[in-house]
Specification:
The protein is mostly helical. It has helices at residues 16-24, 33-46, 51-64, 70-74, 78-85, 94-114, 117-122, 145-156, 164-173, and strands at 130-131, 177-178.
Length: 189
C-alpha cells in the first residue's frame, strides 16, 4: 500500500508535512528531554494558531533557538528576544517568547529535582501511554482531568502557556496519550 493510501486520522490530511508528522512522530512515546522541551514550547507557541502553522516553522525555530537547549534559552536576554521578534520565521509574540525563556528556567529546575523532565512528566501516566479508543475526531477531548492536573502542576513550577488544552496536545504529541483513531494505521492497541 502506498503511503498516501494509508488510512490516517483525518486531521493530518492537509499535506505531506502533516502526514509525515502524524506517521512518524505524533503519539510516539518521547523520552528525550530536549525534544520534550521543544515540543512543550512549540505547543505553547501554537496557542490561538494551528499546529500546521507551528510545524512549518519548526526547523527555523531549531536554528534560531539553539536547537532547543534549555540551558542556553534560559539565559536569553532582552536583546535576543528583540532579535526573535524581528524574525519572520518565528511566531512573533512577545509573551510567548518570554514564556519560552521562563519555561527553560522552570525546565532546568525540574531536571535538577527529578533527574530528567522525562521522568517527571511520564510519572503522570505511570510510564505507560494511555490508549484511548476513539472512532471519530469528535470524540477526542481537548482536555482531560489529567491534563488539568499537569497544567496546574506545571504552572506552580513557573511554566507559562501550559493551559490544560496545551498540555493535552503535548500529551498526545509526546505519546503519553495514544489518540489515534481506531481506523488509523498507526493504532497500537
Amino acid at each position: 500500500m502506498k503511503n498516501n493510501q494509508l488510512i490516517r486520522c483525518p486531521w493530518c490530511e492537509k499535506d505531506d508535512l502533516y502526514r509525515r508528522y502524524h506517521d512518524e512522530e505524533w503519539g510516539v512515546p518521547l523520552h528525550y528531554d530536549n525534544q520534550l522541551f521543544e515540543l512543550l514550547c512549540l505547543e505553547g507557541f501554537q496557542a490561538g494558531l494551528s499546529w500546521h502553522t507551528v510545524l512549518k516553522k519548526r526547523e527555523h525555530y531549531r536554528e534560531v533557538c539553539d536547537h532547543w537547549d534549555p540551558a542556553k534559552i534560559a539565559a536569553y536576554t532582552q536583546k535576543k528576544i528583540a532579535t526573535l521578534l524581528d524574525d519572520p520565521g518565528v511566531i512573533r509574540n512577545r509573551l510567548k517568547l518570554a514564556a519560552m525563556v521562563s519555561n527553560a528556567q522552570a525546565f532546568l529546575a525540574v531536571q535538577q529535582e527529578h533527574g530528567t523532565f522525562s521522568e517527571f512528566i511520564w510519572h503522570y501516566v505511570d510510564d505507560t501511554p494511555i490508549v484511548n479508543h476513539w472512532e471519530t475526531l469528535s470524540e477526542v477531548p481537548a482536555r482531560t482531568d489529567l491534563s488539568d492536573r499537569i497544567s496546574r502542576d506545571l504552572q506552580k513550577l513557573g511554566f507559562k502557556f501550559v493551559g490544560s488544552t496545551i498540555c493535552y496536545a503535548f500529551m498526545q504529541a509526546a505519546g503519553l496519550v495514544d489518540d489515534h483513531l481506531l481506523s488509523c494505521w498507526k493504532r497500537k492497541g
